[in-house]
């Protein structure tokens, strides 16, 4: 799924995502928990403000961001 991402540009362009939009809602990135590289792409595993984990992929050739994975927060029930 293609997503719109606003990224921090520091040492290099699009160094890390700061927030992204799903539908009409923006989600703030609380933390980049992991980052890995493949030929032509960079992946970011992020914890968003909604406590969900997302994996975003940046295609370096097309400069397009996609949502590759999503994990909802676990909900523990109070006793």
Describe the model.
A six-stranded antiparallel beta sheet has the order 1-2-3-4-5-6, with no helix packed on it. The chain has strands at residues 4-8, 16-22, 25-38, 41-48, 53-59, 64-71. By secondary structure, the chain is mainly β. It has one domain. Helix content is 0%, strand content 62%. A hairpin with a 2-residue loop joins strand 2 and strand 3. It has no helices and six strands.
Summary?
By secondary structure, this protein is mainly beta. It has strands at residues 4-8, 16-22, 25-38, 41-48, 53-59, 64-71.
List the SSEs and their pairings.
Elements (H helix, E strand, L loop, with lengths): L3 E5 L7 E7 L2 E14 L2 E8 L4 E7 L4 E8 L8
Antiparallel strand pairs: 1-2, 2-3, 3-4, 4-5, 5-6
Mind summarizing the main beta sheet? 6 strands, antiparallel
Determine the N-to-C terminus distance.
38 Å
Q: H/E series, N to C?
A: EEEEEE
Cα radius of gyration in angstroms? 13 Å
Count helical runs: 0
Quaternary structure type: single chain
Going by helix content, strand content and strand pairing, the class is mainly beta
Percentage of helical residues?
Answer: under 10%
Strand content: over 45%
Total strand segments: 6
**Low-pLDDT runs:** none
**How many domains comprise the coordinates?**
1
Looking across the biggest beta sheet, what order are the strands in? 1-2-3-4-5-6
Shape: globular
- The average pLDDT is 90
Task: Describe this protein with a few key phrases.
79 residues, mainly beta, 6-stranded antiparallel sheet, 0% helix, globular
């Amino acid at each position: 799924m293609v997503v719109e991402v606003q990224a921090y540009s520091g040492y290099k362009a699009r160094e890390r995502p700061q927030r992204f939009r799903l539908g009409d809602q923006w989600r703030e990135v609380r933390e980049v928990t992991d980052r890995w590289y493949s030929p032509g792409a960079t992946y970011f595993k992020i914890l968003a403000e909604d406590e969900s984990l997302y994996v975003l992929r940046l295609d370096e050739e097309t400069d397009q961001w996609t949502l590759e994975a999503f994990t909802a927060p676990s909900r523990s029930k109070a006793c």
